Predict the structure.
Amino acid sequence: MRIKGFVVAMLVPVVAILIAVAATPPFVPTPASATPGFARQTGVSCQACHTVFPELTPFGRKFKLNAYVFTNVKELQATDEQGQRTTLSLSDLPPISVMLQGSNTTLGRGVPDAGVAGELSQQNSTQFPQALSLFYTGKISDNLGAFLQLTWEPSSDSVGIDNSDLRFAAHTSLDRIGVSDFIYGLTVNNNPTSQDVWNSTPAWGYPFLTTNVGVPPIASTLLDGQLAQESVGFGGYLFLFNHLYVELSGYRSAQTSFTNTTTGGPGPLDSTSPLPRISGVAPYWRVAWEQDWDNHSLSFGTYGISAQVHPNGIPESGPRNTFTDIALDGQYQYITDAHIVSAAMTWIHENQKYNNRALSDHEKNWLDTVRVTGSYFFKRKVGGYAQLFSTTGSRDFTLYCSPSTYATAPSPVCPGADTGTPSLLLGSANGKPTTQGATFEINYLPWLNTKLGLQYTMYSKFNGRQNNYDGFGRNASENNFLYVYVWTAF
Amino acid sequence: MKTPAMYAIVAGLVLTTGLTEAQEKTPPPPDLVTRECSTCHGLRGISVSPMFPNLAGQQAVYLETQLKAFRDRSRADPHAQAFMWGMAAQLTDSTITAIAAYFAAQPPAPGKPAGREESAAGKKIYEEGIPAQQVPACGSCHGEKAAGNAVFPRLAGQHRAYLERQLAAFISNARANEIMHENSKNLTALQISQLAAFLSAE
C-alpha cells in the first residue's frame, strides 16, 4: 500500500475518533487530577509551565532555572539545632508520574528484508507502547531538584536512563555593582542541551516525538543527539537581569550498557566501547537573551561544544578527531488563553578534523544543520506544527559510506559489513550528507496531558540525492513516513 | 580591542537593567515573592504578561482577601484554579499579610496609553455609570482615581486584558461575586472594552 492510500485509510478512523472525542461533553481540567509530577508538587496546572507540552512558557523556564523546587504541598521538614537552616524538606506526596507513548509508522516503501536479498520488510510498524517512562520530577531539598526519567523501549527491549537533570539553584543579588536579584545554579545532566530552557535547541526541540523505526540519515552534528544519554555534563549557569542566561559546562562520555572487557564490570571506557569516546572534557557553552513583553516572548542565543573524540576501535593513545559545533538559535512565543503561536529556529555549524584518516577522505569536513519550526494551537486543544529541516556538508565518500569506496576501503564505522551489501539503505552513493525535507503535524489534545498526533515527514533529498541515493535504487521519498501517535503523561 | 568592548557591553547591560532597579530604594521583598510570586507578577508587582495582574500599589486588604479565597478555593475562575489554587494552598495567614503588605507598598504601574475616544467613553461609565442599564458608577466604590479602598481593588493601571477577563468572569459567575455580577451583567462587550481601556490608561 502506498502512502496516499494509507493516508486515506488512516484518516478515516482518526477523524472519526477526533469527532467522537470532540462531541463528548467538555472536560473541565482540575489542577490535581490531570497533570503529572511537577503539577502534583506545585498544585499548578500544566498550562502554567507549558504552552502545549513539552514546550515551556516563560513561567516553565523560570521553574526549571530554579531547579524544580517550587512546591505547594505539605512537607516533612527538619531544621538544624539553631532552627535556622532546613536540613530536610521532603514532599508528603512524591512527584512521580508515568508517560506512555504508542504509535504507528508507515514508511513510503519497506526497507530491505534482512534475511532474504531482494525482498522488503513490512511497510507498517505498530508500537504499543513505543516508550513507557517513569519520572521523578521535582524537589529534593530546598535548593536541589531533579528531572529523572527511566524509560522502557520495547523495540530494544531495554530499560534505560532517559534525559536526566539534577540541579541546584539559588538567588542572590550584587547590589554594590548594580546587579539585582539573579539566579545562579549548577546542573548535572546526560544530554547536552537537555538542561536548556528554550525549545529551540536539539534536546527539547521539535519534533518532540517521532518514529523510531524510520530510516536514519547518515549525518548529524555532535550536539544533535549524538551524545544523548551517552555522556554526562557538569556545569554552572547564571540568569541575570531576568533576561540573560549564561552557562558553561563540561561533558565526558558516560556510555550506558558498556562492560569493560578486562575488568568484566563497568570499568573505564577503552577501545572496545561501542561508541566514540570524548577524550578528556568537552566544553559546552550557552548564552541567550530573553525579552518578554505583553503576551510575547522572544529569545535568541548561541550554544556550542568542542570535543576531541576517539572513534570506537581506536586506543586511547591513538589519534583523536576534533568536532567543534557552533550554533545559533531563536524562539518566539505568543501566548494567550485562546491562541498560542510559536516559532523556533536553530542553525548548527560543525567543523570536523579527522586525525584518524581511516574514517574519511579528507582531514577536514563540515556539516550544517538548520531547522525552522512554526506551530499554532487553539485553546491548547487543536493545532499543529510545520518544520523545514536541512543538513548539508562537504563531500566525503569514505565518511558517508559510499558503496564504491566501501567495497575497496571499508570504513570501520559504516553499516553493512556483515550483511554483504555495504551501505544498502543507509549509505550515500555520491558521498554527500545532504538530507532535506519537511514535517507537518496536526494534533488534538482532549486533555492538557494527552496529545494525539498525525505527523508526516517528507524528504526532498536523503543522504545526498533525491533518487537512488544509496546506489542500490532507493529514492529519498521512499523514506517518507506517516506517524500516528498517542502521548499521555499522568 | 576585545576587552574594552566586553566592558562596554557589560556596563551597558548593567546600566540599562540592573542599576536602575537597584537604585529604587524600596524594602527588600519577602523571600517567597522573590522566588515565586515574581515569576508572573514581577519583583515589584508589575507583570509583563497581561494574563497576570499588576499587584503593585494594590489594596493590602484586597490582596489578603483574594489570597485567602484562592487558598480556600472560594475564588474559582479558570485562572484562579489553574494557577493560584496551587500557589496559595500552603500559605499561612502571616505570610499572606507579609506578601500583601509588600505589594501594597510598591509604586503602582503607570497607565498605558489607550484610544482617546474609547477612554473618554470608559471614563463616563466609570464616573457616572449607565442608569438605563442599571450599571452604577464604578468610582463610587473603587474611588475617584480608581485607586481602590480596602476590599475594593485598585483598578488604575491594571492590564486591559486582565480587566476585561475579570468583568467577563463576574458576568458569567465564573468568579463568584454577587455585587460585581449585578453591577456588570448588563454591560456590553464594547462598554467593557471602553472601561478597561480607560482604567488601564489611568
